[in-house]
């Protein structure tokens, strides 16, 4: 079977969805489904907002990152700037706004490179990665909750940081690994 095929007999049937909990950041639903095996049941789905993440490089081949604490799993690590796309806002505009708010740097124009779902089996949260080259320091971060230590990290260190588990969040990981893979493709071409 080719990857282009989408056989209907393997599609899960959806009969409806009801919301159990809802607020501006998260919605928990029960979806009435019937997988291909024919056993119908309700399945929990978490629906989150669309997210834009910025991977900004400078002329020294360094990436703009933040070292910060995440209380949910009590971890410290590096992250790319990013956040929720406001209703009616363009993803690239969100990515640029988040860079400015979280780091104090205004990035050059950002281009969309890929979209993904970090936990497609249970969580619906579209993530969009934007990249750009260059930024201008325009002031201090305005979102002090997000800003911790802000640094331009050499791309030559990124794979090591990922290997040590020092890069947090799927958006940061996917964006950085995509860039590293893209560079590998170009080097091998």
Automatic annotation (TrEMBL):
<dbReference type="InterPro" id="IPR020084">
    <property type="entry name" value="NUDIX_hydrolase_CS"/>
</dbReference>
<comment type="similarity">
    <text>Belongs to the Nudix hydrolase family.</text>
</comment>
<dbReference type="InterPro" id="IPR015797">
    <property type="entry name" value="NUDIX_hydrolase-like_dom_sf"/>
</dbReference>
<dbReference type="Pfam" id="PF00293">
    <property type="entry name" value="NUDIX"/>
</dbReference>
<dbReference type="GO" id="GO:0016787">
    <property type="term" value="F:hydrolase activity"/>
</dbReference>
<keyword id="KW-0378">Hydrolase</keyword>
<feature type="domain" description="Nudix hydrolase">
    <location>
        <begin position="47"/>
        <end position="175"/>
    </location>
</feature>
<dbReference type="InterPro" id="IPR020476">
    <property type="entry name" value="Nudix_hydrolase"/>
</dbReference>
<dbReference type="InterPro" id="IPR000086">
    <property type="entry name" value="NUDIX_hydrolase_dom"/>
</dbReference>
<protein>
    <submittedName>
        <fullName>NUDIX hydrolase</fullName>
    </submittedName>
</protein>
């Amino acid at each position: 079977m080719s990857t282009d095929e989408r056989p209907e007999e393997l599609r899960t049937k959806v009969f409806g969805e009801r919301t159990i909990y809802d607020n501006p950041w998260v919605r928990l639903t029960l979806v009435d489904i019937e997988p291909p095996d024919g056993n119908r049941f309700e399945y929990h789905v978490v629906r989150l907002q669309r997210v834009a993440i910025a991977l900004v490089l400078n002329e020294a081949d360094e990436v703009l990152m933040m070292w910060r604490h995440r209380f949910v799993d009590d971890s410290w690590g590096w992250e790319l700037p990013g956040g929720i796309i406001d209703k009616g806002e363009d993803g690239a505009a969100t990515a640029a706004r988040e860079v400015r708010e979280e780091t104090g740097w205004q990035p050059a124009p950002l281009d969309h490179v890929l979209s993904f779902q970090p936990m497609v089996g249970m969580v619906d949260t579209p993530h969009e990665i934007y990249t750009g080259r260059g930024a201008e320091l325009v002031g201090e971060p305005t979102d002090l909750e997000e800003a911790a230590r802000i640094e331009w990290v050499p791309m030559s260190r990124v794979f090591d940081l990922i290997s040590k588990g020092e890069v947090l969040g799927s958006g940061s990981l996917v964006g950085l690994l995509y860039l590293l893979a893209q560079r590998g493709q170009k080097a091998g071409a």
